[in-house]
Design the sequence.
């Protein structure tokens, strides 16, 4: 029984062997090696460019998030400024600091 399985294995090995030998002779020959090396270099460059593109997308998304945060903060500051400069708030501050309406002599008109 063992001799039968060995003969089958050797037949398969010899059948695949000419194909493998032909491929080796093509790829590792003087004509095939530059082609193989070119394909390897192109593949590596493709992967590197793809990785750089993904990295730039991550940076772009983080910068977009930062811009949105700054916009929201700017809106909040404008609202706070409007609240502090409101007429009611200014009148409260005038009462707290005991300020009064200016007299006619205190008003100076500056011509344009």
Sequence:
């Amino acid at each position: 029984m063992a001799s039968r399985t060995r003969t089958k294995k050797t037949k398969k090995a010899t059948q695949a062997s000419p194909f493998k030998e032909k491929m080796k002779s093509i790829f590792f020959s003087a004509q095939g090696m530059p082609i193989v090396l070119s394909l390897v270099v192109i593949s590596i460059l493709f992967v590197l460019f793809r990785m750089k593109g993904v990295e730039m997308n991550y940076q772009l998304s983080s910068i977009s998030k930062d811009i949105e945060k700054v916009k929201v903060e700017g809106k909040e500051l404008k609202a706070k400024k409007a609240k502090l400069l409101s007429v009611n708030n200014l009148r409260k501050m005038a009462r707290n600091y005991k300020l009064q309406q200016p007299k006619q002599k205190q008003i100076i008109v500056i011509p344009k």
